[in-house]
Amino acid sequence: MNLDLLKETFASFIRARGMDRHFRRLGVDMFRSSPTTKEVPQTVAQSLVSASQTDLSELLKNLGSRTDGLTEQEADAIRAEVGPNEVEHEKPLTWWVHLWHCYKNPFNLLLTVLAAVSYYTEDMKAAIVIGTMVVVSTLMRFVQESRSNTAADKLKEMVSNTATVIRHDIVADIAEEAQRYFDVTLHPKGAKRIELPIKKLVPGDIVQLSAGDMIPADLRLIAAKDLFISQAAMTGESLPVEKFAEHRGVDASNPLELDNLCFMGTNVVSGSATAVVLTTGKRTYFGALAERVTATDRTPTAFQSGVNKVSWLLIRFMLVMTPIVFFINGFTKGDWVEAFLFGLSIAVGLTPEMLPMIVTSTLAKGAVALSRKKVIVKRLDAIQNFGAMDVLCTDKTGTLTQDKIFLERHTGILGEPNDEVLQYAYLNSYYQTGLKNLLDVAVLEHAELQREMAIASAYRKVDEIPFDFQRRRMSVVVSEREDHHELICKGAVEEIVSICTHARNNGEIVPFTPELLAEIKRTTASLNSEGLRVVAVAAKDLPPTKETYSVADESDLVLIGYIAFLDPPKESTEPALAALRAHGVTVKILTGDNELVTAKICREVGLEVEGMLLGSHVEKMSDEELSVAVETTTVFAKLSPTHKERIVRVLHDKGHVVGFMGDGINDAPALRAADIGISVDTAVDIAKEAADLILLEKSLMVLEEGVLEGRKTFANMLKYIKMTASSNFGNVFSVLVASAFLPFLPMLPLHLLVQNLLYDVSQISIPFDNVDKEFLEKPQRWNPGEIGRFMVFFGPISSIFDISTFALMWYIFGANSPDHQTLFQSGWFIEGLLSQTLIVHMIRTKRIPFIQSRASWPLMGMTLIIMCIGIILPMSPLASYFKLQALPLSYFPWLLAILIAYGALIQLMKKWYTNRYGWQ
């Protein structure tokens, strides 16, 4: 089977729906050609085709399994042999490979080249200092990422997807043997069902599937009922594919065309099934495909692209400025070797070698902090999107309302109390095996249903027609006596009424009339206006002539009545909405529920409904019309999954950073389409897989705290980039001025390198810094252009005071000849390091530093230590080694005055800059 043809078939489909992001999270780029291999190994395809055609009993025997599954001991033995159910690229890197990845960023490679040049030009001190910078940067990143990976693995284990596995119970075997040989009757437990992490599955395991489940491995179906699988991630088919247990005689060499096989990476849309695991991990079709087309470099996210743009901005600046400095010093001083070494030092000084470490440690700290707030981060880069989010789309149930629904009323078709409808509803919920939602749970837990439980035992289930989001209803067929079957259907009122021709009113079956339909509509609207979710129940008797039923049998039903549910709002919802609104996040409700119920809940929680659109309206709108409507609409009701996805995409195309919060199978498309998908740990597997963040508590209050933490994380990363960019630009500008007029180098290459190393070390605690309150009040976005403007604006300000220091040393302290250059260089070394360190505190806030806004104690302490080292170094016995000398005490009052003036001017210019451009 040709992989290129497979790509041609579905690349556009997957890209259009954002499903390629699912693969890229797993390290797979489905659309990047592989130069070495173009096909999935034939052995994988052939083994799957063979398994689909093998007799089931023989297949189970070959796998060493049975219809009631493996024992725990058998599964452990197989797992020890085949390994965990994970694809190859998911294995952690060995420590030496990880160390290499930490080293091989553009900055470290550049510094290594500079160190090598210094070594071969016999500038050993420079080589040692540059080498130290590389080692420190690499080791710090290695340690931070190791901690981050360990923490991330622990967090992911908290939300790992599971599979329902049937385990063979050895107690049953013992009971059978005892009965056979000792004529003793025991009561065996039989097969047991357990929830097992997907990575623990082994070939031969028997698994049960229902709507919302991820297919955990490559499977052969044993039994299936109305099973529809979404294979879009594998084949690009836009519609779910129905699967069957029996091999239907299809002669195909492509396993994807066989309808009794299910593949890892796909998911169940509706129906239920039992299946046996054929292959796991890299031996699956997905694993083999992933191994063949895994790209060495993944498509960068918006955040990564932003960091890369700033990095290359600084590198381009370095490539322009370094030659200029080199030629100016060469021509003015005549010593081209010294000028060359000085140019190299400038290149090092412009290199933000700590940027990868700062970014990694800041994101890691943010992830750990979010975990304490009950938010699990699956993808570290998502933290930046969390802080940038300005529109949150969310479902109503369990988010605005309590995650507990109560059965409030059971009424006849005209609203009168009715116990019969309760019995029918109970039978439907009791016998359905598909996706049991909160409504089913509420029905089964209703206090008045003890009698119905006894009634249910008198019935036999015949068949089931599972729920799907097109029909919005589901049916069960039961038999109390074998002389007839009863089809019981429950679902959305409009859908149920559309398949009914009669209604039961006061014990009589009456035909639908326009007057009766109008009365039914008024009754259900009245219940909705009270905030009740209304589900209609209908039924019909059928002759016992068949055992299999389909959607076509859902016709000519008799409407029995309604069950109405109370879904009360959470106490935390109103303050959470107010907090999100205060922080610049607009909340929009996207729900499949009734618009009257949704509007009432919104009023109760203080969410002002500016506009409302129904799914039927969205369906008729063009993208241009919808793009206008989404801005002024708060509530979207009666939506299908495709409606939700489309609304999210339109908002994104309008320039919003969109978050989507959902937990159902119908939310998966929108979760993938959103800039940041948010789900909960109780969500269906496919929703958790599609999400970037997992909430351990389904609450907007938790979400609001997570948004703030995301903004703190982003703010601290931005601080380092602003500080580094502006400080480096100012230093080079000062060097250019000094080089043009001084008869000696303003600072030796060694001085620049030591100064840069100390400055970088002072900033390693930035991830732990405090963030001003106003920075958290609105969404923050990555803006590389703003970084460039900030650098050009604030960099030259430091040069004013560098030049003042030059004048001070030249005119006041007489350092105006090559014989006194060490004194000059020592004076600028201290002033340059202290002003660079001071800028950390000046630029970290738009407020007055130390008074209106204080840095965290780790940052305060680290900068104080570095400042002390900078002052003491020229005064210490090590001064001669670094070619520095002690400064007279009269220098320090001048230094203090320069630093105070520098801080005052920066503060004034911050105010002007903020008024003109804003302060991101």
TrEMBL record:
The residues that cross the membrane are 732-754, 790-813, 825-843, 855-879, 891-909
Tell me where it resides: Cell inner membrane
What EC number(s) does this enzyme carry?
Answer: 7.2.2.14
The record's catalysed reaction(s) read: Mg(2+)(out) + ATP + H2O = Mg(2+)(in) + ADP + phosphate + H(+)
Q: Which part of the chain is the Cation-transporting P-type ATPase N-terminal domain? A: 50-123
SMART domains referenced in this protein's UniProt entry, alphabetically? Cation_ATPase_N (SM00831)
What the entry lists under InterPro entries is as follows: ATPase_P-typ_cation-transptr_C, ATPase_P-typ_cation-transptr_N, ATPase_P-typ_cyto_dom_N, ATPase_P-typ_P_site, ATPase_P-typ_TM_dom_sf, ATPase_P-typ_transduc_dom_A_sf, ATPase_P-type_domA, HAD-like_sf
Could you tell me the keywords of this UniProt record? Answer: ATP-binding, Cell inner membrane, Cell membrane, Magnesium, Membrane, Nucleotide-binding, Phosphoprotein, Translocase, Transmembrane, Transmembrane helix
Name the coiled-coil region(s).
none
> What membrane topology does this protein have?
Multi-pass membrane protein
- Extract the PROSITE patterns matched here: ATPASE_E1_E2
Family, as annotated: Belongs to the cation transport ATPase (P-type) (TC 3.A.3) family. Type IIIB subfamily.
What's its job?
Mediates magnesium influx to the cytosol.
- State the protein's name: Magnesium-transporting ATPase, P-type 1
Species of origin reads: Herbaspirillum rhizosphaerae
Protein's gene: mgtA
